[in-house]
Amino acid sequence: MRAGFANPSNSMPGSRGPPKLPVQQLVVLSICRFAEPVALSSVFPYLPEMIESFHVPKPEVAKWAGITSAVFALSQSLTGIAWGRASDRFGRKPVILTSMVCTMLASLCFGFSRNLGWAIASRSFAGASNGNVGIIRTTVAELVPQKELQPKAFSVMPLIWTIGSIFGPALGGALASPATAHPEWFGNNAFLKKYPYALPNMVISIFFLFGLTTGWLFLVESNETRKHRRDWGRSVGEFLVRAVKGFFSKKRRRPTWIREEDDEQGGSLLNHRHSSSTSTVKASKSEDRVYTQSQPPPGYLEIFSRQTNINLVVYTFLALHSIACDQLLPIFMHNPPQTHRSANPDVHLPLKFAGGFGLDSSRIGLLFTFYGIAGMLIQFLAFPPLARRHGVLRCLKYCSLTFPLIYLVLPFTALLPTPLTQQLGVFVIMLCKCWCSIFSFPCTTILLTNSAVSLRVLGTLNGVATSVSAIGRAAGPAIGGATFSWGVKRGYVILPWWTLALLAALGAVPVFWLVEMEGFGEGEAGDEEDGEEREEEVDDGRDDGECGFHAARDDRGGGEAAASASGRLVGHDFVPEC
Question: Could you tell me where the Acidic residues compositional bias lies (predicted)?
Fold first, then answer.
C-alpha cells in the first residue's frame, strides 16, 4: 500500500483513495505561526515615535528606524541555517516551539526598551530567534508531499502571514502609548507611563502562549528520523481530547492508558496507525533499531544541487526587490507632489520629476489595508486553482516577467491629473504587484522544496533559504532608500523604481533555468511508509546483522512475495539492496 508521507489525516489504513490535505495539522501550524507576523509588524506604526522618545533628533529618526528594521533581517540571515540544521537533528516540533519562546521574549524586551541601544539589541534578538519561517515551510513540505496538493498547502502559511500583517499594525497602533492616547482609561497608570510601548507586546505574548500550548499538545513531529519517539505533549493532548469527547458524548470509554485503534482515526488531532497491540510492540522494536540512532546532520554537498542553487538565487532576488518595493511605496506616497509642473524648471517630462502624492499616514494606511485584504483573497481563492492548472514553474515565469514592468510604470502614477486618479492608479499597480508576489513566493517555495535531494536535508535547506532571503530583505530596503534619497535630490523619482526594475529583470533570468522536480510524493515518502508497514510484519527472531526475508503483501492480488528486508518498493516490485 502506498500512502502519503507523514500525513496524519490522509486516509484510513488500507484505503487507496485520493490523498487529502492534513487540515488539522495545518490548522495547528497556523495557530503556531500567527503570533510571529503580528509581533513583527506591530512595531511599524509606533517605531518612529518610539525612537523619537529616546531623544533622537528628528532628522535622524528615519535613519535609526531603518537601522532598527535592518538588524532584524541581518540577524535572521546569520541564524537561519543553524535553526534549519537544528530541526534536522532534533526534530521540527521542539525547534518550532523554542523559536516561538525566543521570539516572544524578544518582543517583550523590545516593548520594555528605555533607550535606543536596547531597542536595537531587542530587534536583533528577535531576528536571531525567528527561525520558524524555513522550519514551518519544511514541516508543510513533509506533511504534504503530493504535488497536486502543494499549491493549496503552501498558500496557507503566507495567508496566515498576510492576516497577521494586517492585524499587527492595527494592534500596535491602538495599544502604543495608552496613557497618552487614552488618558481617560490609562492616564493614571504609572507603569504604562514608564513603559509606553509594553502593552502591545504584552498582549501579543498571549498569542504566543496560546500557540505554544496548541503546538505542544497537538503538533505532530514530521521529521522522519524523530517522529517515532514518544511525544509527551501529544500524549497529554490525546488524554485531553478523549476526556472532552467522553464528557460531551457521555459514553463509556476504554481506559485512557490503552491506545484507541483505527476507530479514532477520523476525528482526533493525534491520528495514528495501530493495527494491534502485537504489531505495535514489534513496530516499536523496529523503531528502536532504526530511528533512535542519532544520525549526523547532512553535509553541505548533500544539500546544494544545481537546481537548489538556482532556486536560492531566484528566491534572494525576489525577496530583495519585493520587500524594497513595499518599503518604498509609503515613502513615495508621502513625498510631497510637484505643483505647476509645466512652469517648473526642475521638471522635464516624461523622465525628470521628483513629486509624489503628498498623502498622510491615515490615507496610506487605508490603501495598505485594502492591499492586504486583496492579498488574502488572491492567496486563498486564486493561487491554488491557477497553480494547479498552469503549474508552479509557468506561474513563476509569468510573474518574474511582470515585476520589471510594474516597477517601470509605478512612478508615473504621480503624473496623473487629480489626487483621486493618482490613488486609483497606484492602487491598481499595487494589486498587480500583490498578485505577482502572492504567486511568486509560494511557487519558489514549492520548487525549492521539490529540488531537495532527500527529505532529511529539508530543514537545513529551508534554513539556508531563510538566511539568503534575509540578506535580500536587508539589502533591498537599503538600496531602495539610498537611491530614493539620491534620485529625489536630483529630480528623478523614477531612479529607485527603475533600479528595482533592473534587479527584477536580473532575477528573472535564472527562473528560465529552473526545472520542476518530482518531489517526494510518490518516491521516498511512499517508500518509507511502505517500509514501516512491512516492519510490522517482520518476525522478531531474525538477526539484525543479516539480510533476512519477510513478506510484502500485494494489494492487487492479496498474495505475498518474498523480498529482502532492506529492499524498497518500486511500484509493486521489491528491489533488494542488501
Answer: 522-543
Residue 182, classed as helix, strand or coil, is coil
Give the chain's length.
578
Q: Tell me the torsion sign for CA atoms 250, 27, 308, 87.
A: negative
Distance CA 347, CA 281 (A): 81
The dihedrals phi and psi of 11, each to the nearest 5 degrees, come to -155, 165
- My answer on whether 509 and 460 are in the same domain is yes
Distance (Å, rounded) from C-alpha 239 to C-alpha 218? 11
Give residue 394's domain range: 300-513
Which of 264, 290, 316 terminates a domain? The answer is 290
Output phi, psi for 315, to 5 deg.
-65, -40
CA pair distance 494, 451, nearest whole angstrom: 37
Cell numbers linked to 351: 523622465
Q: Which pLDDT does position 302 carry in this prediction? A: 63
CA angle (413, 480, 121) in 5-degree steps: 135
30 near 215, Cβ under 8 Å? no
Inside any domain, residue 419 = yes
Give the span between the Cα atoms of 212 and 31, in whole angstroms: 9
Number of folded domains that form the chain = 3
What span, in angstroms and rounded, lies between the C-alpha atoms of 238 and 232?
10
Peptide bond into 350 cis (omega under 30): yes
CA distances from 266 to 8, 23, 152, 271, 335 (A): 10, 12, 21, 8, 57
Q: Which residues contact 18 (CB under 8 A, 6 or more apart)?
A: none
Average pLDDT over residues 551-568: 37
pLDDT over threshold 70, residue 333: yes
- Whether 98 shows a pLDDT value over 90: the answer reads yes
